[in-house]
Fold this sequence. Notes:
By secondary structure, the chain is of the alpha/beta class. The chain has helices at residues 75-85, 104-111, 129-142, 168-175, 193-202, 241-253, 269-278, 287-290, 300-315; strands at 3-5, 8-10, 14-16, 49-51, 86-89, 92-95, 120-124, 150-154, 183-187, 207-210, 214-216, 233-236, 260-263, 282-285.
Amino acid sequence: MTVRLGDIVLRNRLVTSSSLLGYGVSNSSLVPYGMSPISKFVPLERFGAVTARTVTVEPREGHFTTRDVWPVRELPGLLKRYGTVLRQTDTGWLNAFGWCNVGIDAYLRDYFPRTRGQRTIISLGGFSAEEFVTLVDKVNAAVPAGEIAAVELNVSCHNVNFDFNKIIGAVLAEAVPRSTHPVILKLSPDYDYLGHARLAAEHGVSGLTAINTVKGLRLDPRTGKPWLANRYGGVSGRAIKPIGLRVVSELREAGVTLPIIATGGIRTFDDCREYFWAGADAVSLGSASWFASYPGYALSPLHALRIRRLLTKIESYTPPPR
Length: 322
């Protein structure tokens, strides 16, 4: 089975959000598939596509680390690191990993070849049009056309302390025409998402991801110190579902016809149906599905069973006509 969203070909309408499953492969039994042990019990090849962690031209430590192999003896140190970049908050999560990644060359050499059994969306991040052009060229050279679902341009991340409004026009004008793969633009609810969606359509983008995390802040009420090392972070999870639904609905009301992959607080089949009713063509599971409190990971097989059941429902579901 396949689902075609314009130029984008998925196995079904349920994909995974960027970064939640790392690079889509597991190097460590301690931290399977990046950050979520739940994924150890879910066959990733069943998803419409798995969106990899955002990769940049050069490796970036960001606010965390590029390491993904952690021996058990270093578990306390790992948890301490996580506490500076990821915290559970009001019905959601606050994170500021800052695009920590191994870089495009290492990803294409060491990780991507091990994901060929699944559909993949490669997420790309940069700070200039030139960097995005370099990233697109490297993907073109390493991945034959049709072998991945799409590349996603992450020109909207709040965790790297950069104003992407300054470059988005040049990125779309210069990087999109060079890609031999369909291009998805990831929209932020904190930017001019309607204007960016229209600009994306003008430059030949194949689809939209809506939405990226929402910029947020939490402070320790006793000391006034920020929870995260970066001070600000991206809010995800159930807390942002109404925002995600609003953005998708407003895009359709504004006449945007590009395919939309909706994300933001999706956990159940009813969540998916809400997004389809709002105008989405596919949905993406993010932190609401893959994250849990540390003790909660003991229930990973049960969480995974819920996701597998959701996959089964989506595989046979036809969204309402628009």
